[in-house]
Amino acid sequence: MALPREAPPGLSGRATATGRCDRMNSYGDQQSPRARARVPGPPAAAPDDEPSSPRFSDEGRPAPDAYRRPAGGRATVGGSAPRGSASVGSASVGGRASVGNGPGPGGAGRAPVGAGNASVGGRAAVGGRAAVGAPPAPPGYPGHGGTGGRASVARAAVRPVSPAVGGGPGLDGPDGPGKRGSAAKILNKAAKKRRRANILTAAAAVLVILLGAGVVGGTYFFDDVALPSPKTEDQSNVILDAKGNTLAKLGDQNRTVVPQAKINMVVQHAVAAAEDKNFYTHNGIDMKGIIRAAWNNFSGGDTQGASTITQQYARHAADLKDISYNRKLREAVIARKLESTYSKNQIMGFYLNYIYLGEGRYGIEAAAQGYFGKSVLTPAGSKNAITPYEAAVLASIIKQPEPTATHGGFDPNYNLPDAKDRWEYTLSNMLEMNWISQAEYDARKYPEVKKPSTGKCTTCAAGKPVGMIMRHVTAELRSMGITEQEQQRGGLTITTTIDPEVQKAAEEAGSRNSKKSAMHGRPKTYQAAVIGIDPSNGRVLGYYGGDDPDGIDYGGYLNGEGSGFSGSGQSPGSTFKLYTLAAGLKEDISFKTTWDGTKKRPDGTKINNAGADDNSVCDGKIKYCDLETATIRSYNFPFFWITHEIGMQKVIQAAKDAGIEHLVNNDGKMINLDDTDDATWEKNFSDEVGFGQFRIIPLEHAEGVATIVNGGVRHEAHFVKTVKRVDEKTGKLVAYKSEKLDGKRVFPADEMSNLDGVLAKYPAHAKNTLRNGRQAIAKSGTWEYDDGKDKHVGSGDTWFVGGIPQLAATVWVGGAKNKVELREAGGGDMFGSGTPAQIWEDFLNAVTKALNMKQESFPDRVETGDPNSKYANGQPPPPPPADPQPDQQNPGCQLFPRLCQNNDGGNNNGNNNGNNNGNDNGNNNGNGNNNGNNNGNGNNNGGDNGNNNGGDNGGDNNGGVTTFPTLPNNRGSDSGGGGGEAVQSPGG
After folding, report:
1. What are phi and psi for residue 885, nearest 5 degrees?
2. CA separation (Å) from 353 to 10, 470, 842?
3. What is the pTM of this model?
4. CB 214 within 8 A of CB 141
5. Residue spans of beta strands (DSSP E) within 514-587
6. Residue 230 and residue 233: Cα distance in Å, rounded?
7. What are residue 526's phi and psi, to 5 degrees?
8. Which spans does this entry mark as compositional bias, Pro residues (predicted)?
């Protein structure tokens, strides 16, 4: 993930007496394109056509006059004899030239010329004899008798004589200290010798450099320097959410490699104008620049480099880091070989893709996007193309992209005055080289540059919970065949499945830091995970696995590299019953089957049932509880016996089919279900798997839940939608890898409609219905945990899972790092139907509102299975109670017992019988409503005289009983009893 860029620190290397830096600055860093060609010496302003390097900080700089003292590899005009060495390779020209050592006790020695070795840097044999005088050493300075060191540039040794200066002791050369001499006699002569030595030294250095690059082309040294292959520049990988917002840029370098042929020529010309205006005409080495730099370096002037664009790239490609003339010579040789192997345009392309341009931007494309929001690939003259003035700004930054302790650099955001001066210089060179017209030059105006990034990215994942998905993205890229090396090279644009609205809802619902969350204010030892998956395709739309993106991933338990698990999941409790039910439905078990809750396990232990007392289980029907009721009320005993009867392997297979890939046994060992078989499962698990004893990974459980929500069609949960990469020929992003959306039916549709039909009753049971009456399916789960502090056994893992047709939602709440006994805010035990259910409800309500989701319903329920399944073990229910006996005190009841039944025409059940049978018995109604008034048999009013209400004499129209008076037992009951029955009367 991309991190906020830190301000570049000042260089703090310590300059030593040998002119080297004990601690390398970014110049010597092989990854730092800021490194520029420098030779040892004080950082002084280089000529405008020469690139500079980062400079020493004030802390690491020697005293102002230190560079006039003896220092490694450099002889100053009229001065001391430096010591140390700086070598630039070796090449044999032939012959030996030896120039005498410093004077011994008797004075200056003379070097015989012939076959001798003497070095100015490197080894270049020069035939003949020569004696070269040296400037006098200052009195009292201890050291060698001459320059003492070797400034090697090819293979010729020049070791000048250093006669002693009168008045002080001579240098301690190889032959001993020089004698005192007369200063008056030799001062004038010494001055002449100094001038002559410096001229000869500078000329020799220039000659050797030229020889090393040109004449010595066929020698050992030239052949020994290998031509490196062009570097494949590392790029960043851009991670986007499903809406195209940037989540992260992964990789050490923010770079986008682009093809040279597509880069706007005005950009290429601007870079050449700023860095190497003769780039298109020289052969890789700028001779004039070398001569000028060498003269200044050896004569005590401003220390300079002489690197062309080709040499700069050669240094980068060959990974040359040391600061020495040896490196310069190798750089020159490689530059020549590059020029003879590649075209100018190719070399320019290599260079433009590698250079560093400040603010964390590598390569010209990243710089153009960062400073101007434009692409260098846009053709000149087109809308939003880079202008010559913008190109000059970019090119001017290359010299020193970032500020140091001694110079503000040329980034206009940090040092606008110097940036403008450099910009003027670049445009002037562009005009001189006819790369812009006079009119364009005259119309110049410094362009507006985008402000530097504050490091804050409103959509970026760095430091945010969404950053947790990066490890999942990395793992998926590997599974898609994108190797670790390819990921490191970068250049990939990865679009994820994460929907910003769903992600926001997941974080707000699950994070303790969100005031909207049911977790807000809970102890820090509590942790939640929230996962939302589109069940129709497996895309993970929202993922909350913790607040720290670099911490424990409570949703997937992947390690930071995405290469393996860093934890072992959580016990799913009753939510695992979804898979037990799926397996049972496949075995033709009906939800109407009954199960005996009093039956003990084969080992004699009792099966607990959600903490319920046996007398209350299934409303007192514990011995013949139906499976549907047991599912909604989370009783365990039917699920143990289903697993026991059909075999645990079938339950585990159903879980695997749905999406569970790993189960953890009681010893904490994670079993990969894809790589193991029934025998392994039987060894590691037990029938308790049927009600969720064994730990699982929440993300895998979320995939399984999505399969149930989707009616039995499984789609693998995934985070990556598409992967694109830059086409090397066009520079455009092209499709590379893509998600696989093919689903697989793993459970029959009718069985899933049956299961979903039962689960649809659960939200109302748990009092977690969704807004606007939206239909949902759900199941809670709780697994107990005893912390050992008291006799109370609490909850350790709590779940609420389910969803709507468009979104499957899985919520877990448990202990952070370690298990704890979970309690609600009021102090009671936490269950899945508590805080997890509230998080689930809040999450789905927020998503449906934010995305304005249409209300969709699950398919109509189709009841499947055999109510009399051979696997069910419920006892037969008791017979219904018998009808009460007739009242023996009523003589009418003894003669006509059917008239004495208490249940004749009540509200509930009497209507059916009265309506059908009462037609003959009074007013053709026989409804027996409420009190049976005027309707049917046994009216409350049926007095002795009938009164047309079923009395003695009034049976003509009302079907009343003609013989007997009031029958007080025949009143219409509100409850309807057993279903009142109209009595046919003799006169009906």
Report:
1. -75, 155
2. 26, 27, 49
3. 0.65
4. no
5. 526-533, 540-544
6. 9
7. -95, 145
8. 875-884
**Three-state secondary structure call for residue 25:** coil
Among 640, 751, 754, smallest CA distance to 687 is for: 640
| Tokens encoding 53 | 């390097």
d(CA 832, CA 572): 10
Structure tokens at 857: 């319903």
pLDDT score at 488: 81
- How many alpha carbons fall within 13 Å on the CB side of residue 402? 24
Q: Can you list the domains of the chain with their CATH numbers?
A: 463-872 (3.40.710.10), 888-988 (no CATH)
Alpha-carbon span 66 to 79, nearest angstrom: 13
Distance of alpha carbon 44 from alpha carbon 41, whole angstroms: 9
Reduced to 3 states (helix: H, G, I; strand: E, B; else coil), residue 804 is strand
Q: How many of the other CB atoms lie within 10 Å of CB of 695?
A: 21
Write the single-letter amino acid at 894: Q
d(CA 756, CA 808): 13
Alpha carbon distance 644, 628 (integer Å)? 19
Q: Which DSSP state fits 817?
A: S
Query: Would you give the distance in Å from CA 454 to the centre of its chain?
Result: 21
Q: What is the DSSP letter of 829?
A: B
Structural Rg of the chain based on CA atoms: 46
If DSSP states are collapsed to H, E and C, what string results for 842-879? HHHHHHHHHCCCCCCCCCCCCCCCECCCCCCCCCCCCC
d(C-alpha 458, C-alpha 250), whole Å: 17
Q: CA-to-CA distance for 983 and 372, rounded, in angstroms?
A: 98
Contacts of 344 (CB under 8 A, 6+ apart): 279, 280
C-beta neighbour count of 263 within 10 angstroms: 25
**CA-wise closest residue to 979 among 875, 907, 884, 897:** 907
Residue found by looking up tokens 């279900």 in the block:
673
Whole-number pLDDT of residue 149: 37
Please list, in sequence order, all residues whose beta carbon lies within 8 angstroms of the beta carbon of residue 107, skipping any fewer than 6 positions away.
Answer: 163, 164, 178, 179, 181
The neighbour count for residue 756, using CB atoms within 10 Å, is 22
First-to-final CA distance of the chain:
92
Q: How many Å apart are CA 761 and CA 751, to the nearest integer?
A: 16
Beta-carbon contacts of 396 under 8 Å, excluding residues fewer than 6 positions away, are 274, 410, 419, 422, 423, 425, 426
Here the tokens at position 586 are 């496949």
The string over 439-455, giving b where at least 16 C-beta atoms fall within 10 Å of a residue's C-beta and e elsewhere, is: ebeeebeebebeebeee
The C-alpha atoms of residue 879 and residue 874 are separated, in whole angstroms, by: 15
Q: Are 675 and 705 a contacting pair, CB within 8 Å?
A: no
Place of tokens 């509880």: 625
CB 82 within 8 A of CB 162: no
Centre a 10 Å sphere on the Cβ of residue 976 and count the other Cβ atoms it contains.
20
Interstrand relation of 246-250 and 237-240 (parallel, antiparallel or unpaired): antiparallel
CA-angle at 602, arms to 598 and 603, nearest 5°:
105
The pLDDT score that the predictor gives to residue 196 is 55
The string of pLDDT tens digits covering residues 556-592 is 998 877 888 888 899 999 999 999 999 999 999 999 9
Rounded Cα gap, residues 499 and 807, in angstroms: 12
Q: What pLDDT, on the 0 to 100 scale, is given for residue 26?
A: 37
Phi and psi, residue 494, nearest 5°: -110, 120
Residues with Cβ within 8 Å of 317's Cβ and at least 6 positions away in sequence, in order, are 228, 229, 230, 231, 334, 338, 350
Which backbone phi and psi does 86 adopt, to 5 degrees?
-140, 115
CA–CA gap between residue 789 and residue 823 (Å, rounded): 15
Q: Collect the ranges in the chain with pLDDT lower than 70.
A: 1-225, 289-290, 293-294, 296-306, 322-326, 453-459, 610, 883-988
CA 204 to chain centroid: 57
| Range list of H helices, 647-796 | 648-658, 678-684, 698-709, 749-759, 762-765
